[in-house]
């Protein structure tokens, strides 16, 4: 437990090398990967987020913490992505237009990959037409959108409308998530699923494609 507390502290401090070292140590000590992620790295981002809300931290500090968290995540990625899993379907993933937050989206991508999905990661600040272009190329079963800003959340709705206008909506399921997204919002904009975290995203994706192990 002491190590996880140190991981939190060093993510908050934005100390990349220390986060790497502590994450490696936790892995070597046999700490469960999900625990390192949830109770160490993500908890650290949560703590700096709270400081940001209280105006005790500012954007540069957030960036340093994000960099430290990503350094830890990179070490966990091979362990989260289990080998030899059969491809379950293709997910086109991106953070919506105007929004550059990528940590949650990347985590969802890693977990989906680990569960056997093919991921086409469009990155951040993805305009609706980019989603429709890629879905138009065929093969995708799910469009996954991440959004962390209230101000740009409406691009999720715009993207669904763009898929509709391009005659592609019936071809794909739409899953959304991110700190400011709710089930209620998903219902209102006509998304097929909402997931609160990366593990739930995997269950919902399976459920959407009618695969075994979905949450229903
Ligand atoms: Co910004 N930011 N940020 N930020 N940032 C938030 C989101 C904020 C809540 C902080 C706050 O005020 N409390 C706030 C948004 C408020 C709002 O709109 N309601 C905010 C703001 C205001 C801003 C700026 C406008 C600040 C400014 O410039 N004044 C600016 C906007 C830039 C832009 O996008 N245009 C900005 C910038 C930044 C940084 C660049 C400095 C940095 C991002 C670095 C990066 O991503 N590379 C940053 C960060 C780090 C945060 C906080 C602190 C942490 C976000 C994070 O990575 N969390 C965040 C505060 C917070 O969330 N508590 C905040 C960890 C991550 C694992 O969680 O992304 O929620 P999350 O993902 C989860 C789930 O939500 C879910 O699964 C993930 C894993 O469990 N999930 C999905 C996510 N996507 C999903 C998709 C799915 C399913 C589930 O299906 C497809």
What's the topology here?
Blueprint: H1 2-13, H2 16-28, H3 33-53, H4 59-80, E1 90-95, H5 103-114, E2 118-121, H6 128-136, E3 140-146, H7 154-165, E4 173-177, H8 183-189, E5 193-194, H9 198-208
Parallel strand pairs: 1-2, 1-3, 3-4, 4-5
Task: Give your account of this protein's structure.
- This protein is an alpha/beta fold and 216 residues long.
- The chain folds into two domains: 2-82, Methionine synthase domain (Methyltransferase, Methionine Synthase (B12-binding Domains), Chain A, domain 1, Orthogonal Bundle); 90-208, Rossmann fold.
- The chain has nine helices and five strands, in the order ααααβαβαβαβαβα.
- Strands 2-1-3-4-5 form a five-stranded parallel β-sheet, with helices on both faces.
- Helix 4 (59-80) packs parallel to helix 5.
- Bound molecules: CO-5-methoxybenzimidazolylcobamide (B1M).
- Residues 42, 45-46, 48-49, 52-53, 59, 62-63, 66, 98-105, 107-108, 144-146, 148-151, 175-180, 195, 197-198, 201 line the site of CO-5-methoxybenzimidazolylcobamide.
Properties at a glance:
globular; 5-stranded parallel sheet; 55% helix; binds CO-5-methoxybenzimidazolylcobamide; 216 residues; Methyltransferase, Methionine Synthase (B12-binding Domains), Chain A, domain 1; Rossmann fold; alpha/beta; 5 strands
Q: What is the averaged pLDDT score?
A: 91
Portion in strands: 5-15%
For the largest sheet, list the strands in their spatial order.
Answer: 2-1-3-4-5
Distance between the termini: 34 Å
Residue runs with pLDDT of under 50 for 5 or more positions:
none
**Biggest sheet descriptor:** 5 strands, parallel
Bound molecules: CO-5-methoxybenzimidazolylcobamide
Structural class: alpha/beta
CATH topology type of the largest domain: Rossmann fold
CATH class of the largest domain: Alpha Beta
- What CATH architecture label of the largest domain applies? 3-Layer(aba) Sandwich
